[in-house]
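dumping the sequnces here before i forget
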Amino acid sequence: EVQLVESGGGLVQPGASLKLSCIASGFTFRGFAMNWVRQTHGKALEWIAIINYDGSYTNYAPSLKNRFTISRDNAKSTLYLQMNNVRSEDTATYYCTRNDNSNWFAYWGQGTLVTVSS
Amino acid sequence: DIVMTQTPSSQAVSAGEKVTMSCKSSQSLLYSENKKNYLAWYQQKPGQSPKLLISWASTRESGVPDRFIGSGSGTDFTLTISSVQAEDLAVYYCEQYYDTPLTFGSGTKLEIK
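..and the predicted 3d for all of it:
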């Protein structure tokens, strides 16, 4: 069974940094591209970034590219999202997702909530 | 960016009824070389993560009931639930994966009368 478990969310002050993690199990992690997607309280879904199977290719939502970095450690079956200089508008639930044959999100984690507030 | 527009934003139906919801894209999602539409549908039940229902505009995922039907091509797409069940209470989102940035519609909330 595919499982994606996010962690690292919480309450953080504006301007701070935060690193989210997603531990994958139930499949060969190094064989799949992975993404981060976020959902605001208003329920809008926003794609953040994608990383290919070996980490040699990444692509970002243009509005987030300068502050967020996606990475992976295939030896640890773990996906990461480094968030820098966070803002109130970054408050959302952050999901780790796995691709299948193309860029749809075949599997989702349960999400980790990030709240940016002073 | 490709803008995805979903209508209606919400609708209420009785169990057993047929329901349709629309998703329109600001540019064609049909890739000429393989004749495939790069559109997916997701279902998000209350308190849960989104779940993939349909890819390539009309291909149901394994285990998805056949009452969920995706159709359309180019810029106009439809998700039909042929006979709504109480467990279909959810928000339904479309997503285009034709180009990055990958983008979602704002969702259609389905309520059961």
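The longest strand of chain A covers residues 18-25.
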